[in-house]
Amino acid sequence: MLIRDKFKNKNPLISFEIFPPKKDYPVDTIYGTVDALNDLRPDFISVTYGAGGSTKDTTVDIASFIKNKYDLSALAHLTCLTSTKDEVEETLNSLKGKGVRNILALRGDYPEGAGADYIGPNHYKYAKDLIAHIKENDDFCIGAACYPEKHLECQSLDKDLLHLKEKVDAGVDFLITQLFFDNETFYSFKEKADKLGINVPIIAGILPVLNKNQVEKIISLTGCTLPKKFLRVLEKYEHKPEALREAGIAYAIAQIIDLLSWGVDGIHVYTMNRPKTTRRIIESITNIRGVLANEEAS
Ligand code: FAD
């Protein structure tokens, strides 16, 4: 099923992100993870595309496995910066051939040391160029990325939002956010996006933090900020890994409950391929939603 159609029937969506095994590891090492996540019956599972297209084929294979074995909607990430237009076309054909109809269309990151001349006429420069191409030639459902705290390369959030508006107008059906730890940042971003007429659903990306190294790496990769209350948790439990893990899961659950109360379009859990953690989070939300549904019915 196309993800854009799911927003019509049900709100909010719950989805998960997984990443393919590293090169040289057999692709089926991920299938146990998919199996466990399928038990939670999310609205879709997304599969990342390794930096520089390093997991091109496995991303397609895993997305196809999710769709065809479990009858679950799969969202295949696809980056364009490090592939030629012909190579992108090959991947699109391969997805089509395997029945995967949902794409998260991304630019990707520049390889280290790449200069201004890296992009030639055979490449798409921005995600919006890839999106316009897909929209013109096919009928995929297209998702794209957005950044509540702005993209690292952009000078300001206002400029980034103008670029986002162009991207959405090129043919985006829904957006998924970069992870964030302060919901107020997301609410303010959503308000600004609304004012610009960015009116596709925006799914909030949530990462359950499990250890301190993970947080440090994420901050350097994404530039996201940590609110004081989260910094306190990190400081308090920094040398108690088990407690930090529990606090990280509890923090993610609290964030999600707040987002659901606010009326978010969807929650996308960055699972880090950890189905047990994901299960704990989803079960907590499901219990709350179940109680609410019962109370409303009585
Ligand atoms: P774009 O939307 O093209 O934006 C990139 C930059 O260009 C921004 O700073 C934007 O402001 C600027 N820009 C856009 N249009 C213009 C214009 N007309 N003029 C000047 N500047 C402009 N990376 C992977 O490698 N694999 C993945 O699977 C992956 N999955 C992701 C999933 C999510 C939900 C998110 C949030 C990110 C993901 N990324 C992934 C990271 C992403 O590839 C990087 O953040 C990348 O640097 C930007 O990609 P984009 O599609 O957002 O680019």
TrEMBL record:
Keyword annotations from UniProtKB, A to Z: Amino-acid biosynthesis, FAD, Flavoprotein, Methionine biosynthesis, NAD, Oxidoreductase
Top-level EC class as recorded in UniProt: oxidoreductase
GO cellular component term, pick one: cytosol
EC number: 1.5.1.54
Co-factor requirement: FAD
GO MF entries: FAD binding; methylenetetrahydrofolate reductase (NADH) activity
InterPro entries for the chain: FAD-linked_oxidoreductase-like, Mehydrof_redctse-like, MTHF_reductase_bac
Protein name: Methylenetetrahydrofolate reductase
Biological source species: Paramaledivibacter caminithermalis (strain DSM 15212 / CIP 107654 / DViRD3)
